[in-house]
Each structure stands twice: as C-alpha cells, then as structure tokens.
Fold this protein.
Amino acid sequence: MKVIMKTVGLILGLCFMGTIAYFLFVPEDTPRRRDNSKIRAMLQDRTYLLHIKDGSYFGNSGFAYKERAIVEVFIKEHRIEKIEIISERTTMKPEDAGDIIEKVVQSQSVEIDLPPRNAKNPYPRAIHKSILHAIQHAHYDNLERQWFPIPKLPRTGV
C-alpha cells in the first residue's frame, strides 16, 4: 500500500511540476499575441480603418452596477457608416449618451474628446468603450488568425 501511495504521489508531483514548467516556458510569440500587438499598433497609428473588413461588429462595456452598454458598429468601405445602441441591459436612454456617437462617426476615429467623468452619468464613456471594444474585435485583413463568419440572426423584441 505504501508503494502505491508513493507512486501516485510521485506521478501527481511530476504532473504538477510539468504544468508549472510548461507555463513558465510557453513561447511569448504566439499568433494571438502578435495579432493583438498589431491591433494596438494600428489603433495608435490610426490606420485601423484601412484594414477592417466591411460588416457590422458588436461591442459591449459594463458600467455602474449590472449595467451594460452594447453597440453595433457598421463599417463599409473602410469608413464608420453608423453606430447603433442596442443595449437592453441598462436603465439609461440613448439620449443619455450625448453626442459621442456623432463625434466618432464625424471624425472617423475612436480618439475623441470625452466628457469628464461623472458618477451621475457614466453612459457616454461606456458607449465610447463599447465602440472601442467593437473596433478591437473586428475582422482585420492583415492578421494571422482565421475568422469564421458568424451567421447573422434576426433581431427579436423591441
């Protein structure tokens, strides 16, 4: 019985040490990390619109307590066509977002002047963060990973 317990302990110890060694020596240069650094560089250079494929992209951001701002960003011919607020998980009205959407569409950039932080109305900053999330997770034509189209489902409800 002692031999079996020692063997099981040795095997579990080797598995544990192997797992730690694997995560210590994982290659830092993976396709996902390279793609994420490319996206960050494109956002800093403001060249991201040149590489986004046409389509609609969803972005979301949490704010306040259990509140979510969800937007759909439409890209056509390397331009932001329109942005729709489709959030159903918030008590805020679309008017509370202010002119954030108009600023992004007019400037064709996510780098805009944001209103100061306000505890009473965090919605404009949440909408901006949602738009940024959608742009960061859009389908780019110069990345290594392959994207598979997700079928568009019909909207129901409101």
In short: The domain at 46-136 is CATH 3.90.1010.20 (Sufe protein. Chain: A). The longest strand covers residues 67-76.
